[in-house]
Amino acid sequence: MSDKKHSTRIASVQNRTEPLFGSVAGASGATERVWRWGDDNMLPYALALIARRSAAHRRIINDKADYIAGKGISYADNVPMLGEIVAHANGSAETLHSIVARLALDEALFGNAFLEVVTDSNHSFLSFYQHDASTCRLARNSRHVIMHHNWSSFTPTDARQLPLFPTFEEVGDGTLRSMIHYKDYEPMFSHYGVAPYIAGLNAAAIVYKTDRWNITRIDNSFQLSGVMMLDNTVDNEEEADRIVRLAEEKFAGTPGQVLFVLRDGDENDNSRFIPINTSSDGDWHKLHTQAESDLVIAHSWFRSLSGLDYSSGFSTERILHEYEVALNTIILSEQEQLLEPIRAALRNTLLIDASSLEIINRPPTHTKSPYMKVWEARKADGLDYDENDPNQQLLLANLSKYNPGSTEQA
Predict the structure, then answer these.
(1) Strand, coil or helix: what is 262?
(2) Could you tell me which of 177, 174, 148, 151 has the C-alpha nearest to residue 164?
(3) What is the structure's pLDDT at 369?
(4) Minimal CA–CA distance to 90: which of 65, 62, 115, 112?
(5) Among candidates 393, 204, 342, which has minimal Cα distance to 195?
(6) Rounded to the nearest 5°, which phi and psi values hold at 31?
(7) pLDDT of residue 8
(8) Domain edges within the chain
(9) What is the DSSP letter of 40?
(10) Residue 360, C-beta contacts closer than 8 angstroms, at least 6 positions apart
């Protein structure tokens, strides 16, 4: 590749504007054009809402996505174009790592993620754009992705479509565009992936409701629930309802905290408050704790990597052990699924070797001295080592790019 052509490709990548899409010609409605995502085509909206309301659920999703996204992306120095793509993945000057991080978050939340690939007829450049998965649906022909900003109020004129990778189609600005659809496999679901935590939705709801119950108690200043019996003589039911509503507004706090009952009185006022005593605080706490544990299991994740055990002590050994298990059972395989289509797009479009493209992983805590060399660390772990191994030298060089303050030396 000549320096002149290399410079042209870099400029094309940097000067790209926001992505454009081909119009959906003749679309007459959302359900007629797409395979529904959920019974009402609104499942992504429901999943996003649950994640916003359940603190533990959201923390697990965020942490899992962060670990899968890693700390950066490494590549071989002998392929300069890879370095340009990693640093400037599109015309918005987004890094490839930032795009991969959002893909990892979408897949952890929805079980699906969408990545747009942009080039031209000469294959003179390549750009990547991540799309919010909640805006994307699979077309009925199963060969296109249809995008709309709000599927609850679908309008055909605002809908756009792109073909599924590796097919490219030309759009109005002359570029060729395609869409990569990532999805977590689930039997009986052929069009969309299913979020891995699907069996933990009830647990996420319990965590949210127990938190809400505590907020209600605080709003009511921890007052007892009960029934307030009011003695009063009224002429009609409307007057009785008015008195009860007035009492609730002044004294009840959160609706349902105190039940007001109005009855006919006599000469003596027998109004009284009947408390409803409960000793369920411990039961609610156990329910909340159990729901959190069920959530971790449903996510196929680990408590110490989600910050759920910090209150009981910070165990570096346990965190590192669970990180190693997560790395070898979940993280590496998820990273490979995210990167392989990107490598294929680079290979097919720019005709470059993208096999060296890898996500850099670092444990959340360190037990080894930061002054150790790579081969010294491997020796300390009882692994094979070679202090002159060029692959280890390359790994150390890539790590130093993302850790300028590192004192490691090759």
Answers:
(1) strand
(2) 177
(3) 61
(4) 115
(5) 204
(6) -70, -20
(7) 34
(8) 3-197, 204-283, 368-410
(9) T
(10) 70, 71, 72, 73, 74, 398, 399, 402
| pLDDT given for residue 363 in this prediction | 87
Place of tokens 């006599």: 266
50, 201 in Cβ contact below 8 A? yes
Strands (E), 40-111: 73-74
The single residue listed with the structure tokens 């009063």 is 232
Can you tell me the distance from the alpha carbon of 101 to that of 79, in angstroms, rounded to the nearest whole number? 23
pLDDT the model gives residue 381: 62
Taking the C-alpha atoms of residue 163 and residue 103, their distance in angstroms, rounded to an integer, is 19
Q: What are phi and psi of 231, to 5 degrees?
A: -90, 125
Q: Which residues have a Cβ under 8 Å from the Cβ of 110 and sit 6 or more positions away?
A: 44, 47, 48, 133, 134, 193, 195
The strand pair at 258-263 and 226-231 is best described as parallel
The C-alpha atoms of residue 259 and residue 279 are separated, in whole angstroms, by 19
pLDDT at 6: 39
CB atoms within 10 A of CB 38: 12
Phi, psi for residue 221 in degrees, rounded to 5: 55, 35
> Helix or strand or coil: residue 180?
strand
pTM of the predicted model, to two decimals? 0.72
Query: CB atoms < 10 A from the CB of 354, how many?
Result: 21
| Cα–Cα dist 75/97, whole Å | 12
Q: Which residues of the chain have pLDDT under 50?
A: 1-28, 221-222, 255, 405-410
* Measured distance CA(15)–CA(307) in Å, rounded: 41
Q: How far is 143 from 179, CA to CA, in rounded Å?
A: 10
